[in-house]
């Protein structure tokens, strides 16, 4: 098509947005008009659409399909079926104003694009309704929508959780669960821009073909998939992404009433792994979701690595905290890239964003926070990690190097095995026992659950209950190999049984320690990971989902390290960081690479500051 026939956008002011309306022209053809409105003035009622920009990354703008003021505007291939759906529902020409990003924003204008991103939260919050367009119907999409509506009605009959689990986990519903998995696997769920479009609006409706379901109904079906663990949906990455949205929406609603905050850092920790055509949008696309002020400004003239570095530096400067560097373990930059080891590389794909992305995501610390459910908002304000006490960060930036003040506590020596790594045995020279087997098992138990009762790190571990369950389950596995026990715990025991801890292997400590009273009915431990505030529920989160490994230091201290830790890594306290971190000395010896966060039992609340012979130093982390 000749360029002179293409629609040319009229410039708009920084405080303006464009809205779209479909009309029938003088020749009775469907066309559209765009009109600018100031966000500082009352807007007409308008709807918006949330959708994916292409079915395939190789496709994009297709042949012009929308007539605009006598000219042709190229539109996306994924949006044409939505217009057909509007026509099929006989609402295309009902005089409704629409905000559709790919049409209402001049995407060729970088400055306008950046300015419009700043208005996203306003646009979606003030829309009368946002329609999520999942695409055209499939063989089982209607079954999925019917199942979603069925769950919605069932829950409103006020059935109990055990009752609904018993009902929905029957084989009768297998096809429905598969259909729901397909529904959640639609490309829309994986796109980062659609997160705020799910969370922020007052009203959201899901359309798939001609079928519809409300956001509330869809969210309840996701919740039921979480509860019905045997349905086979929960461990699917598509479910995890959807469930994180559900929890973000719940917290966003409550936060607007109770002044709870959603931070950009927390949003990035949960959602930056999602699909984005532009890696800068892994942060920019979440700004509208945050209710806490962020100093990050949208600037498409900067490269992604520059945006990530500036965001990290700004967080450290704004909060006098180094906690943000802990996310660089999960979102770690490949070697040879311009992103340093202490800066989270948000474009690094993390296919399983966890319920709690990091120990510094603890509930009591609002400078980061987490996406906990509405039922989990309460927390014990006295329970929080503070490995560096009240010491603020002492730091200096030199290009891409972080100079941070702190000290070495110990050195990683032995590490339990897991699916990806063999066990690394502790050094024989560290074999003098210093603690009783009972005390060592208690320390191991605390480490396996990060000394917390719940996955949002809101309450301290109930020592007696968790240690009882821990020893009961492990003694059963060790002494009765054919007995029933969770497979995940049985595997962990095989990977750990030979690990030397203060002169005796783990199995030896287990045998030497007194077990729970078998006559005590309370000693029967939970073995279902759904019940999260139990030893096994917490073990499942930390060891299975987060892939933490049991660790013994050169001085016999016990803790947990991330999957890529190695013998010889330094366990350090950095001032201004709430958890210990692992550093690995470079080959030249003058600088360090950040490996990740670390749990060190007995040293999570500033105790290391009182150790004798602490030698403070400045670490140059590259």
From TrEMBL:
Residues in Heterokaryon incompatibility domain copies: 46-197
Pfam families: HET, Het-6_barrel
InterPro entries, alphabetized: HET, HetReg/Transcr_Mod
Protein name: Heterokaryon incompatibility protein-domain-containing protein
Organism: Triangularia setosa
Lineage: Eukaryota, Fungi, Dikarya, Ascomycota, Pezizomycotina
């Amino acid at each position: 098509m000749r360029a002179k026939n293409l629609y040319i956008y009229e410039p708009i002011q920084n405080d303006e947005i464009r809205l779209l309306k479909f009309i029938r022209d003088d020749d009775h053809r469907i066309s559209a008009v765009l009109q600018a409105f100031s966000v500082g003035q009352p807007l007409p009622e308008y709807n918006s659409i949330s959708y994916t920009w292409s079915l395939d990354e190789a496709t994009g703008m297709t042949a012009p399909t929308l007539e605009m003021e006598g000219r042709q505007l190229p539109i996306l291939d994924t949006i044409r079926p939505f217009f057909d759906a509007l026509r099929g529902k006989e609402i295309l020409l009902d005089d409704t104003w629409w905000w559709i990003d790919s049409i209402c924003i001049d995407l060729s204008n970088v400055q306008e694009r950046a300015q419009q991103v700043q208005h996203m939260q306003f646009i979606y919050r003030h829309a009368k309704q946002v329609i999520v367009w999942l695409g055209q119907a499939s063989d089982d999409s209607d079954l999925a929508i019917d199942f979603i509506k069925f769950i919605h009605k069932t829950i409103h009959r006020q059935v109990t959780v055990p009752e609904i689990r018993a009902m929905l986990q029957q084989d009768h519903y297998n096809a429905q669960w598969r259909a729901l998995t397909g529904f959640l696997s639609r490309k829309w769920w994986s796109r980062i821009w659609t997160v705020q479009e799910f969370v922020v609006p007052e009203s959201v409706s899901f359309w798939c073909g001609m079928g519809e379901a409300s956001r509330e109904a869809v969210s309840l079906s996701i919740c039921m998939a979480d509860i019905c663990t045997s349905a086979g949906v929960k461990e699917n990455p598509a479910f995890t992404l959807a469930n994180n949205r559900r929890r973000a929406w719940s917290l966003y609603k409550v936060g607007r009433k109770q002044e709870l905050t959603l931070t950009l850092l927390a949003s990035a920790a949960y959602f930056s792994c999602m699909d984005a055509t532009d890696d800068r949008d892994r942060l920019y696309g979440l700004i509208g979701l945050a209710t806490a002020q962020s100093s990050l400004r949208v600037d498409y003239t900067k490269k992604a690595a520059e945006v990530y570095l500036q965001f990290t530096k700004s967080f450290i400067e704004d909060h006098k905290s180094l906690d943000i560097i802990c996310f660089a373990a999960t979102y770690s930059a490949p070697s040879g890239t311009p992103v340093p080891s202490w800066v989270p590389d948000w474009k690094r794909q993390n296919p399983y964003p966890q319920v709690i992305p990091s120990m510094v995501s603890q509930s009591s610390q609002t400078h980061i926070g987490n996406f906990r459910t509405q039922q989990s908002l309460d927390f014990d304000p006295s329970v929080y990690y503070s490995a560096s006490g009240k010491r603020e960060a002492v730091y200096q930036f030199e290009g891409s190097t972080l100079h941070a003040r702190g000290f070495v506590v110990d050195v990683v020596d032995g590490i339990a095995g897991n699916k990806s790594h063999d066990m690394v045995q502790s050094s024989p020279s560290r074999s003098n026992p210093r603690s009783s087997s009972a005390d060592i098992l208690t320390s191991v138990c605390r480490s396996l659950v990060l000394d917390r009762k719940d996955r949002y790190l809101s309450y301290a571990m109930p020592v007696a209950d968790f240690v009882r369950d821990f020893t009961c389950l492990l003694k059963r596995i060790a002494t009765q190999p054919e007995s029933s026990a969770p497979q995940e715990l049985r595997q962990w025991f095989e990977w750990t049984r030979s690990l030397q801890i203060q002169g005796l292997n783990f199995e030896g400590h287990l045998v030497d320690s007194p077990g729970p009273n078998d006559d005590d009915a309370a000693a029967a431990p939970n073995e279902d990971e759904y019940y999260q505030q139990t030893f096994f529920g917490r073990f499942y989160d930390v060891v299975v989902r987060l892939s933490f490994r049991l660790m013994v230091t050169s001085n016999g201290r016990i803790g947990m390290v991330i999957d890529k830790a190695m013998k010889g890594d330094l366990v350090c306290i950095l001032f201004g960081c709430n958890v210990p971190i692992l550093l690995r000395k470079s080959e030249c010896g003058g600088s360090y690479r950040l490996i990740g966060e670390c749990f060190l039992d007995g040293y999570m609340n500033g105790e290391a500051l009182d150790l004798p012979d602490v030698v403070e130093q400045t670490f140059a982390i590259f």
